[in-house]
Amino acid sequence: MSKHYERVMAIYREASDLHGAAALMGWDQETYMPPRGAATRGRQLATISGLIHERLTSDEMRGALGEARTESLAPDQEVNIREIARDSDRAVKIPVTLVKTLAETTSAAIGVWIKARQENDFPAFAPWVARLVGLQREVAEAVGYEDEPYDALLDEYEPAATTKETAAVFDSIRAPLVDLVQRIGSSGVAPRTDFLERSYPIDDQRRMGVTAAERMGFDFEAGRLDISPHPFCTHLGVHDVRLTTRYSETLPMQSFYGVIHEAGHGLYEQGHDPAHEGTPRGASVSLGIHESQSRLWENMVGRSRAFWRYFFPEFSAIFPDNAADVSEEEVYAAVNEVKPSLIRVEADEITYNLHILLRFEIERGLFADEYTPGDLPAVWNEKMKAFLGITPPDDKDGVMQDIHWSHGSFGYFPTYTLGNLYAAQFYRAAERDMPDLSDQIARGELLPLRDWLRDNIHLPGMTYRASELVEHVTGEPLSADYFLSYIREKYGSLYRL
Ligand code: ZN
Question: Would you state the pLDDT for residue 103?
């Protein structure tokens, strides 16, 4: 019998429903909430996260978890107990006073960051970075780690990933990417992009994004698309998955690839087994695996030649005037323009990873006492010069451009590049299983790929940890080779290298 297991799940489901309520409030906060609602909303969200913490750490939960481990459980049940115990252990280990101090410090730091960034005043922000690093170091000490404190932070977003292994994979792509970017820069090839600077009405942009998302198999009866300043995807359940994007009349591809990216995340959430809704067995593995789903659709599919074979007529039908003097190949080249730039979120598929490597190296150095927060502007600019050949004119668009550090989120950035590497390796495995994949995409038949992802990656939920999932699906541990050969082939041809 598994009565203790059932008890754990009953409590966990309440926590999971509370998560759903918080997700809905968070979604509303970014989309429709009137500006003056912010203070109340912040308090309401804090109340809910307190309730979730209580559920996870209650004596009843701890007792039931301990007993459930001695019961004989089915494999799916074991996955749930393993993951719930992980959450609960982590929540128990971090003292409540530390959680509270972190929340208060973060909420003050965000305000300081906004002002310091406006005024280009890094010295005003530096003490807050120091404070947040100190607090996260306390978290790491409380949670425990194998080699270095940064392991504990990375583990929060990418369970079971280690700093050392991540650094080794990142080290293997740094020089090849820097070299490729330099060769592209000196290739003398520059795609035509003038037609993307024309006016693209927002209603039509929306239609273009929805057309692609529907074709990908995103279910709008179980999801929505709204507008927010920072695009995201959130879910209240398998059948309520919400995407957002932002529109600018002269940046049609920003909203288009934003929608495809978020719909990639959304398909992962819609692809979980409804029978396991609200449990780890029916949830996503990690941020890195999540990002692999969005990047695979955005880049490997949406920025492929095959995709534009299918989509160019759709694009021309929605924007007949703007597309009148443009060819399919010109659009394909334009959406794959590589250009070193200051801002991470505007970066192309190749240089994006160099922005991430820079942040990972800085974060690791901060937690290893290699750098102090005061060193960051100089270290940032030095690495920008070495990786991308450009020097930020100021700290506003340099070291202060991202919100993550003011949130106290250290260990988050690496999951973006891990996502790109997983995506390339998964995509190669999909091509192996479906030799005519690219022909299907060229015909606009995207459902076979969605179903392959669903069977191999979405439906197993948290059955496997990220590194196990990669091996299970592709037959090999994570390797950067797939990503490197994918970009070398694609950009070698685009830039005639
Ligand atoms: Zn994403």
Answer: 87
Q: Which residues make beta-bridge pairs with 235?
A: 241
Active-site annotation holder among 83, 156, 262, 291: 262
**% of the chain at pLDDT higher than 90:** 95
SS3 for 488? Answer: helix
Are residues 95 and 196 part of one domain? Answer: no
Whether 54 is a known active-site residue: answer no
How far apart are the CA of 288 and the centre of ligand 1, in A? 9
3 CA to middle of ligand 1, Å?
Answer: 38
Pair of tokens at residue 207: 């239609």
| Same structural domain, 136 and 173 | no
| pLDDT of amino acid 3 | 94
Give distance in angstroms: CA of 299 to centre of ligand 1.
12
Name the amino acid, one letter, at 302: G
**Separation between Cα atoms, residue 113 and residue 109, nearest integer Å:** 6
- Alpha helices for 32-162 (secondary structure H): 38-57, 59-68, 75-93, 96-118, 122-143, 149-157
Q: Cα(291) to centroid of ligand 1, in Å?
A: 5
Distance from the CA of 110 to the center of ligand 1, in angstroms?
22
**Helical segments of 298-446, H only:** 305-318, 320-323, 328-334, 351-367, 376-388, 414-433, 437-442
List of the chain residues with pLDDT < 70: 1
Which pLDDT score is estimated for 445? 98
Residue 474 pLDDT = 98
Residues 223 and 106 in one domain: no
Residue 397: the pLDDT is 95
Q: Determine, yes or no, domain membership for 380.
A: yes
- The parent domain of residue 191 ranges over 164-494
Number of separate domains in the chain:
2
Q: Are 60 and 190 within one domain?
A: no
**Cα 483 to averaged position of ligand 1 atoms, centre (Å):** 17
Predicted pLDDT at 39 = 87
Same domain, 201 and 296: yes
How buried is residue 51: exposed, middle or buried, by Cβ count under 10 Å (0-12/13-18/19+)? middle
Tell me: do 271 and 417 sit in the same domain.
yes
Q: Which amino acid is at 273?
A: D
Q: Average pLDDT of the chain?
A: 96
Picking from 90, 111, 144, the residue at the C-terminal end of a domain is 144
pLDDT at 1: 65
